Fold this protein.
Amino acid sequence: MLYRQAILALSEGKVNKANEYIEKYKSIGKENSWSADSIATNLALIYTEADILDSAEFYYQKRSLYSLIIQEESMALHIS
């Protein structure tokens, strides 16, 4: 529900309201042990669906960074 509310608010230019929904969405994700990668992906999708592509790109890049970190940590564990 918060996901769709954030998209609608962004689409209507209600940035402050959208930010409230997004913060609640992120909090719920953290409470449910979602990975940072998963949260970043979902935020990228919110901004993509709201057609705010610069913000979507930011979160897609953040997701890519998390993925690289996870891969490096995984490789380091296999080397040890």
About this structure: Helices lie at 2-11, 15-31, 36-49, 53-79.
